[in-house]
Amino acid sequence: MATKFNITSLGCAKNRVDTEVMMGLLRSAGYDLAHREEDAEVLIVNTCGFILPAKEESINRILELAALKQSGACRALLVAGCLSQGYSSELADELSEVDIFLGPGEVPQIADLVAKALAGNKFVEVGKPDYLYDHNTPRMLTTPFHYGYLKVADGCDNFCSYCAIPSLRGNFRSRSEESILAEAQNLVQRGVQEILLIAQDTTRYGFDRYGEDRLPQLLHKFREVEDLQWLRLMYCYPDHITPQLIEAMAKDPKICKYIDLPLQHGDDYILQAMNRRGSKQEIKKLVQSLRENIPGIAIRSTFIVGFPGEEESHFQNLLEFMEEMRFDRVGVFTYSQEERTPAGQRLDQVPEEVKEERFHRAMALQQEISLSVQKEWIGKTVKVLIEEEVEQGLYRGRSEREAPEVDGFIEFSGKDLMPGQWATVKIKAAGHYDLMGEALDESGQ
């Protein structure tokens, strides 16, 4: 009987792809997936080490699984991912229950490392984080069958002052166009209808490999991927969004009228302190260009409040910026002091209670904006990809304006529908995050 494994995946969608690759490699090596961790002989945690709450979640999960090693079927416990990359020696000293620590660069060795752990070996295997999978790499999808993530690059060269990702993930490195398109075709053949392009900096795609901006050209080539319904762009650094990219998005009906545009702040002093390229005025021009050239585009952004040195006037500039821009969707985060970053070394840290207070004020403002934007869709008809049947006759799905996992849903009444199918839905009501409606039949009734 084959040895069974179970993997816990924490953190971002990029980490999820690494998890899916490890699962594929283990299955190819003859291991079986245990859907319950209690039944697994091998337990793996693919950790996140981005900010303090993510580190704490990772450590708590490791401790939970370590208990299973004492009382359950588990014979080997491995810890992978960004937390291992940054803190393996400290973790190895504190977590003796873990057999092997490995970083993102050791993903292709997972089957060999599992075998060594089962043989009783204990060690740290963390090297340079320079691995990048390709279309020939085995991969088990953990998403619903109708959508999947496609990582076009890994690593980051932006060096934002608050972020440790370049040290955890390595330098930015792009896959070839041929490999990306081949994987896209493979995903579609497996039933995927929506592909989400991801990277630490998706819009930088191609600079390292081809010496020029190649995302517009790559998007154009996605037209060759038959039966793909939606292509969605996530993690788009504003500095690399060119007129050519906007034109490519506007012309291709496969590309969702949606962009994930992390901006992080709306005050020039704070943006400069964050080592973010581009001014508030340049960002405004970019947003205007996106909206003028792609009518109806949904723009999602993220902002950090409580960055070191952020005074009330800087925060007010952020609120005014949010109010003026009226983004469709916004995630707000309190700044997390990371000791291995330039911002983490600053002496002008903002008190936690001030961060929390600003977080709630920013979220309250965005809720008003989001509800106002959502209400504009009442009475309109949208194409919806069905995610699930919540109860008999009630379904949940997404239009091109909602990305999976981070945005809301459209809940609608209908009959005889299945996940992965499409529905035409007339919007009847709106909430802060979700829309409500009813499915129309082929006659539009």
Automatic annotation (TrEMBL):
Gene Ontology terms: cellular component: cytosol; ribosome
Positions of the MTTase N-terminal domain: 3-119
UniProt key word Metal-binding: yes
Cellular compartment(s): Cytoplasm
Pfam families (alphabetical): Radical_SAM, TRAM_2, UPF0004
EC nos: 2.8.4.4
Domain TRAM: 375-441
Annotated signal peptide: none
Catalytic activity of the protein: L-aspartate(89)-[ribosomal protein uS12]-hydrogen + (sulfur carrier)-SH + AH2 + 2 S-adenosyl-L-methionine = 3-methylsulfanyl-L-aspartate(89)-[ribosomal protein uS12]-hydrogen + (sulfur carrier)-H + 5'-deoxyadenosine + L-methionine + A + S-adenosyl-L-homocysteine + 2 H(+)
Superkingdom of the organism of origin: Bacteria
PANTHER family on file: RIBOSOMAL PROTEIN S12 METHYLTHIOTRANSFERASE RIMO, RIBOSOMAL PROTEIN US12 METHYLTHIOTRANSFERASE RIMO
Summary of the function given for this chain in its UniProt record: Catalyzes the methylthiolation of an aspartic acid residue of ribosomal protein uS12.
Protein name per Swiss-Prot or TrEMBL: Ribosomal protein uS12 methylthiotransferase RimO
Organism: Heliorestis acidaminivorans
Gene name of the encoded protein: rimO
